[in-house]
Amino acid sequence: MSGVIVSVDRNSGMVATVKMGDQITVIDESGVETGADTGPTPMDYIMSALGSCTVITLHMYAQRKNWPLERAEVTLQQRTLSNTESALAAGDKRTLISKTLQLTGDLTPEQISRLKDISSRCPIQKTLEAGMVIQTTLI
Fold first, then answer.
1. Who's near 51: CB < 8 A, 6+ residues apart?
2. Distance between CA atoms of residues 67 and 61, nearest Å
3. Domain locations in the chain?
4. Mind telling me which Pfam families this protein's record contains (predicted)?
């Protein structure tokens, strides 16, 4: 199991320091009053994980098939669905993430169609769609 350590101290406002292995970065909840706009938001990181997993999965698949995929780009947008759109009870919220793919290369229509299908099979998308169990322990 890989570990990520995230911390916020009293003087940092809403800026969290994130340590992932030897990498250190920040997450900033800039939409709130004490955010400093010094880094991406938590949702930016979720969408970045989904987008990077999608394009990497596409390239891995295309390389295995020896297909001429030169570039894969995905644009992601997120919004909260209304209760009528999501068929949830009043007060419940559901998030919709829209992915728009742009594939560059001398690909056949069949290859493009298959890559579109493969784009939804990246591990991050599968995890997000399945939901997660999160266990909290206080030490």
1. 74, 76, 99
2. 8
3. 1-40, 42-130
4. OsmC
Q: Which residues contact 15 (CB under 8 A, 6 or more apart)?
A: 8, 26, 27, 28, 29, 35, 36, 38, 39
Which residues are within 8 A (CB) of 72 and not within 5 positions of it... i.e. 6 or more apart?
Answer: 54, 55, 58, 59, 62, 101, 102, 103, 104, 115
C-alpha 40/C-alpha 25 separation (Å) is 10
Each residue of 30-65: pLDDT tens digit?
A: 665 555 667 888 889 999 999 999 999 999 999 999
Per residue, the 3-state secondary structure of 18-42, as one string, reads: EEECCEEEEEECCCCCCCCCCCCCH
pTM score of the predicted model:
0.82
Give the integer Cα–Cα distance in Å for 70 and 97: 25
Angstrom distance (rounded) from CA 86 to CA 80: 9
